[in-house]
Specification:
By secondary structure, this protein is of the alpha/beta class. The protein has 13 helices and 15 strands. The structure holds pyridoxal-5'-phosphate.
Length: about 400
């Protein structure tokens, strides 16, 4: 038998990918599964970006690029940071990667020694935990529940800091909750970190463009955090380019250099065609991006209205991304006469098997009461899914659970 390393054996499988695999096997059995488990826009990549990629191929761009990305792209990203976020990262503080997932892995490996602590605002995106684990860091979860819109406060952050804290990591808009931090909320968090030495903020802004409350705010804008913020972004969500694999960071120069070193030994520069297309994407034509945002907003309202009619589900109003994260704890300790629901994992399996709707358990995101529904799907499917969820949850009656 092949002995897989302990490092990998101990690593959890991605819950979102696991749910996707289970839905696929039910679909293969002929079931009509509605998959609301994936974090992926269901739109086409905008036409002008696709055209730029075709032109890059025809112009013969087929060689390795610099490890940290094409100079023109890094310049375009530097301009974008200033234009959209008021952030001053020069082109040599930018590192382009094969998706924001790799950007995050680079940064975590660049900063974390074994035992260093990474404070994450919880609920958090699944891969943060796995990446910190691989780097032998210690994940410190700051739990914020639905009653406070899943947002952590400066007091919570202050209380979690120790002399081992190296990174504070969060996403806004947030996956899985859709929570968006306001400028004032970010300032409060910035002041806590700014008053300490040697702690860096990793701000995951991949959902920047899917924000329903106006302008996106970056934590890097505050002077008290000068040279302390790594801003992570990418094209997957705002430009419907998940498969193109292009992410990037703006970072203090030493961190950018370390990330380049790491990437130079693992993947080198990402696909040159995707990089050429990214130069186009990050230009001034954001019309499709805004149209997609409008479509997500409409669907969010639709999903909230439909789920709001289901007794027992507790909802808040997500202000960005394309997820809702209902609290389903009212159903724990219930049964349909056949399946017992002890926790949110059981509930998600029940919804998959009984309603044939795939959602993702909150426990994968550090929350054991909620589950994530992605509304990046057609309206008819969302309506059908909500109806099926309502029927299945309606069958659950309280029981004494052993
Ligand atoms: C919060 C968050 N960060 C990063 C990523 C990774 O994005 P990419 O496709 O650029 O690797 C995702 C993708 O789901 C995400 O939800």
């Amino acid at each position: 038998m092949i002995k897989i390393s302990n490092r990998l054996n101990n690593l959890a499988e991605s819950a979102t990918l696991k749910m996707a695999a289970m839905s696929r096997s039910l679909i293969a059995e002929g079931k009509d599964v509605i998959a609301l488990s994936l974090g992926e826009p269901d739109f086409e990549t905008p036409h002008h970006i696709r055209e730029a990629a075709k032109a890059a191929i025809d112009a013969g761009h087929n060689k390795y690029t610099p490890v940290n990305g094409l100079a023109d792209l890094r310049k375009a990203i530097s301009n974008k940071f200033m234009r959209d976020n008021g952030l001053d990262y020069s082109a040599d503080q930018i590192v382009v990667s094969t998706g924001a997932k790799q950007s995050l892995a680079n940064v975590i490996n660049a900063l974390i020694d074994p035992g260093d602590e990474v404070i994450v605002a919880s609920p958090f995106w699944v891969s943060y935990a796995a990446q910190v684990q691989l780097a032998e860091g210690k994940l410190i979860e700051l739990h914020a529940g639905i009653e406070r819109d899943f947002k952590v406060t400066p007091d919570m952050l202050e209380a979690a800091i120790t002399d081992k804290t190296k990174i504070f990591l969060f996403s806004s808009p947030c996956n899985p909750t859709g929570a968006v931090y306001s400028k004032e909320e970010l300032q409060g968090l910035a002041e806590v970190i700014g008053s300490r030495e040697g702690i860096y903020v990793v701000a995951d802004e991949i959902y920047e463009h899917i924000n329903f409350i106006g302008g996106h705010q970056s934590i890097g804008q505050f002077d008290c955090l000068a040279d302390r913020v790594v801003t992570v972004n990418g094209l997957s969500k705002g430009f419907a380019m998940t498969g193109w694999r292009l992410g990037y960071i703006g970072a203090p120069t030493a961190i950018a250099k370390a990330c380049t070193k790491m990437q130079g030994q693992i993947t080198s520069g990402t696909c040159v065609i995707a990089q050429m297309a990214a130069i186009e994407a990050l230009g001034d034509n954001l019309k499709r991006t805004y149209e997609m945002r409008e479509a997500f907003l409409r669907r969010r309202n639709l999903v909230l209205e439909l789920l709001g009619k289901i007794p027992g589900l507790k909802l808040n109003v997500p202000e960005g991304a394309f997820y809702v994260f209902p609290d389903a704890s009212a159903f724990f300790g219930s049964s349909d006469g056949d399946t017992q629901i002890k926790n949110v994992d059981d509930l998600c399996m029940y919804l998959l098997e009984d309603a044939n709707v795939a959602v993702v358990t909150g426990s994968a995101f550090g929350n054991d009461k909620c589950f994530r529904i992605s509304y990046a799907a057609a309206d008819e499917r969302l309506i059908e899914a909500a109806e099926r969820i309502k029927v299945s949850l309606g069958k659950l009656q309280p029981v004494a659970v052993a």
